[in-house]
Amino acid sequence: MALLDSITQLNQWLDVWHKDCRTSDQVVNCLNKIAELVEKETEAFVKMDPDPFDNRHPSRARPDCSLGLVLKTLFRNDDFMTKLVNDYVMHRDDTNLQIAACRLMLDILPGLETSVVFNETDGLVQRLFQWAESASDPLQSYSTGLLAAAMEVQDIATNSKDQNARLLPIMLKRLKELRNKNVETNENHLTDRPFNHLNKNSLSPTKTITKSRTDLTDIPTESLNKTPGKRTLQSSSPDLNKRRRLSSPTNFSALSPSTYNSECSNSSWAEVEPFMIGSSKVYPLTEEMKQRFILQYLTPMGDYQEMLCFVFEHNALSLIMHYIDLPKNKDIRLAFDALKYLASLLCHKKFALEFLNAGGLQQLLQIYRPSVAATGVSICLYYLAYNEDAMEKICLLPKHVLNDLVAYALWLLECSHDSSRCHATMFFSLSFSFRLILELFDSQDGLRKLLNVIFLLDIFSDETEYTEDELFTQRQNARTVCVALKRYFEAHLLVEAEVLRRSSSYSSFESGSAKDSVSANVPLYKSTRYSYDVIMERVETLLELMPIRINWKPVDELIKLSGVKLLIQLIAVSFDWNFTGKAEAVRSALDVLVVCSVTPKFQSVLCDAVQVGDENQSTVGIRIILAAAEGEIVADPDCQRSALNVIINCVCGPLHRIGGSIAKLSGGSAKKRLIRSGEDLLTKMWNCVRSNNGIMICLNLLMVKTPITDADSIRALSCKALCGLARSETVRQIVSKLPLFTNGQIQGLMKEPILQDKRTEHIKFCKYCIELIERVTGAPVATNLETSIANINKAEVVAQTRIEFNEKELLQLIYHHLTKKGLSKTAQLLHTEADLPKINTNKNTLWPTTPLSHNRVSRPISTAPLPSTLTNNTPINSQTNNNNNSLTPNRCVTPVMTNLLSSTSSPNCQSSSVPIRIHRQISSKNSIKPLSVRKLQPTAHPSSPLMKRLTEQSSQSQPQSSISLDSIVTEYLRKQHALCKNPVVTCPPFELFTPHRCPEPLNRNLAPINITTRLQRRGVFPRFGGLNGSKMDRRFIYSRFRPIRSYRDPESSSSFSSCAFSFVDQFLFLGTLGGELAAFNLHSGTLEATYNCHESEITHIEPSRDGKLILTSSLWRQPLSALWTFTDVFEMKLPFRDDYYVEFGKQSQDKVLGTKDFAAHLYDLTSGKLVHTYQDENLSNRYVKNRATFHPSDDLILNDGVLWDTRRATPVHKFDKFNQHINGVFHPNGQEIISNSEIWDIKTFHLLKTVPALDQCRIKFNNIGDVIYGAVFEEETSEEEDSSKSPFGLSFRTFDAYDYSSIATIDIKRSIYDLAVDAGDCYIALVENQNNRDSFANESVARLFEIGRSKEEDDEEDDEEDDDDENDVADEDTDDDNIDNTEEFDLDNGEESGDDDSDGEHSNEDSDESDGLDDELLLLSDHSSDHSSDDEIVYQLNN
Questions:
Q1: Residue 569 CA to chain centroid, in angstroms?
Q2: Is the model's pLDDT at 577 over the cut of 50?
Q3: Residues 6 or more apart in contact with residue 1203 via CB below 8 angstroms
Q4: Strand ranges of the sheet holding 1210-1214, from the earlier edge strand across to the other edge
């Protein structure tokens, strides 16, 4: 009602001004009345105790206040506001009008856009300067207040430096005069208080306003802007649990004056209010208001260094000290303005030190609380903490002062405005680096009070309940608390790391005296702030040295107060924040987790479920951290690094911690049970990270290339996390089968950094890559290794081989070398004593003169040291090169020795065919020094022959002088052995005169490549004409597809979207974009019937085996799926309202499995009821295109990457996620699961292999189950998914279902919607479209292909003749030419020759024989289980 009255009165006075104000007196009267109305509402607004640092419009700060609406109403009258500023304030002669206008402008400043008014009004600022300097009151004071508002605008203050330099001393002098006058008045003033004679101690406030140092547990009082009913962390003190509103007239015990602490006080709210809120009346102008205007002007001037000289000259510090002494200054608002001025001066180091020397900090701590001045204290404390020298001086103060300081700041955290809570939080975040403040903070239950700030924010509730300003304030406070928590735990980390580093035994941890006895390197009054690298070094120190059962008090307290879950919830909900400080808040919260995750107890908490959101959804904490590492929560590299560091701490901890294995009595028995908590915890963390798709996330981060400045560091950390996970046997097995190792991707990543300036990070990345390779392969490798797992295993076989050779052959080489050098006598003596056989010098019986090292790899395998004399410039090398063309008897053996020596000494003779090197050679300027093998941790690698051999050689290493000719020859022969394609461990003695070659495996019973020959050999080899005969038959049949017919919508009203073959009547079912089901006759191509099934696009069709039922699925409009009877009557039998994909059981078709998002629904067709829902939120992989599917036996269900047992309705196993889209299907053999490109064993749950060609493919099996059809179906996807599409999006591929080798790629040059396979394996059907389905163009057609036949040349002429007579509905595909085989043909023998596959094997394809054998080959249904890699055939269908 009062609001309506104020608005009505304002409108009335505006009408009066518009109509009747003709003279100056009338205008002045009108302005004064409006000013009185605004001042009344301003006073009411001030009584609501708003945040004094909140400069927003009153209607935004307090939407329920009347002042905001009054100001809005006033500002809507543009004519009045224009007149007020341009005419009334700028009037030349009428002083009364100027005073009234300035008074009204002061009143409406909270809603005025000062930057616009003062910048766009010419001469206004200059006139205000003139009035503030020489005018009389009240115009002088009003202009000073307006000038203070103008100086808050940076541009105006910068442009007015000269005027400010002249006015500032005048203002300081004037302020001092007003202060002295105020002091005289207060000395003669006696408090007029009823019944004050009953309390003699309260007669004079100056006698009683003394704050006891022990009075630190004042009952905190909430301000009016607190929301009741929010979560808080309960204190052990019952007094701290009491909460009352500020306006309560009974809760004054927190005030510092003892007058109001007395139990017999009869104080009323009217008496306490001046000490807490104060008044802000502009009229009538009081002495206090004059001083406030001056202080408001001085505040923005305090930031400028050039104005500081006037501050010291006029002793502004004494003025401030007077105003903040509340027993002397009774105006709390005046004290607040003085504190704002003080805060602006404290940014100067010299003034801050002077303030502390004058006892200013003690005076600050005497400010009443709660009061508006206490909010001013908060910003002063923040500026003091920002100055490190000032904080050092504060830490040297008496301990009781520091105790009061921490207590006051903690009170500000709990009982003040939002701004003071923010300032107090920032004060602690800056002061935690000082050990004294940190200890006092802990002693006063500071962590609980700091966490309470977030609990009271209620940031986890529905955002619609708050305005944008309130949300911003909540998130800003959450950010500052997270930063403070980060600094808090980092400070404790530095202390604890120093203690653990200096501790010599575990007993020091149990005694608890180590921390007290060990003094830190930094004095207690000094800051201990360190860089990021030092912090991470301390984290690693604690991770290695932290005992398994240590009680680290800060972390234990955080866990006890549910701070861990709070931080994880904060990280999770920040996903939806639109806030500039979001990245810093998340990063700080993650940094807290980084420090705390060094303790085993904290790591266990991260595996617990955390409630996220208002829908009681819970998820594991590790999953949220992994999401942050992936960049899903906030795309900030610093956040990703912090999240990765948390994961690293969890998975890279030591296997054996101090105190990790203890003997424990169980059940009162004397038998002891050993508990390995360290290993158990690591296993738990490995499984938790892995079950939440940690492997996939780390692998994806290994490939990251943006942002370019941070990609190298992110890759290094992700590789380090993989190294920690690879200590798990299960993870090692999975990683070893991924393309990262099988295709040599990791070696490609190690070649160059993403950014050349980040080579330091790239070196770390390479270090972790080498460690990862060693852990996965079990063999140590060199830092510059460029090979795959297959070559590493090959090198291990070579290293295990025992090298033996005929010593007489070596002596023969020496004999010829001596002869060549002219030492014939010595050579003859050697020949005689060694009884060497006579060599026929007329025949060149030795190797070809071309050295093997020029065509092969010349990298050393073992660590045998090399002679320092064998370099590229040895005389032997040069002589050999000069005489390379001679074929004299003496030189016939020279190439052998030359090859031996040059291959050992020349590092430049390298080849990319078999780049093997186990340990690199470090060469100096003139010699090559041996490199000792570094010791490996016994837990890092399993025992292997290669590792044993290298270890033995390392332990028995000798100096360079011990290198013998025997070792050189042995090394050279081992290199020959390494060049073999299939080296074997057991070899006969090597010959120096004959190149070594291990025997190649020969399969004499291998089936012929030519299919005609194979068919002829069936009489001798009944099983397909020999070994791998069935495989070759499949390759022949399923690499040939003949397009025979196209199907189009006869009415051209819609396009096809899906297809399926019937099992009985040879129908081809086609679904349309309009939701219709069309049944075509497979043989004649005629349209039999059309059924209206859905109102949207049909995405899936599945007929039953008996032909009586059909399942259909659609995109939208319920029911999404339905079961239809396909008999004499086509009707809906059972709807599936929310399931977007359904399928029949594989063995028994009396059940249907439906999929809705991440849940699978099992239906019984007999009863039509839902049997069970298979879903587990904690195990869900959340595939974008999840489709649940049956096992061939119907006993198992694969849904969203989780294997379920239908008999017990329990999850059996969760498979690791390596893609975002496809769930997977069962292999018809029932032993394997194909999940995108990964092949899993159902029995052992091991990853058998990866098939990159299957990536993003929807796969279909033929009826026998020995061939896979794969195609990337075009669906409604986002742009992000389109960017990750397979390059085979316009083709389909065939694979051998036994070894998953590619058979052929058929390029149809159109996007594919669906693919169906005939039950007889004679036909396949494709739904194709060139255009985007969003256009709904009539371009989508279904095409029928015949399997096993290529289009003959004669068929083209027949197609052209029959083109006019063909049915309009099912057209012969006359536009298609012959399938062009893109493989190369060997014209000499008439056979195809394929390229080598990825495994390096070579096989020839079937010859281009006549297709007259096709009919017979289509009957081939047997299959073989032989595994070999074959070449892929690529075809194109030219349209």
A1: 16
A2: yes
A3: 1196, 1197, 1211, 1212, 1213, 1214, 1215, 1233, 1242
A4: 1189-1190, 1196-1199, 1202-1205, 1210-1214
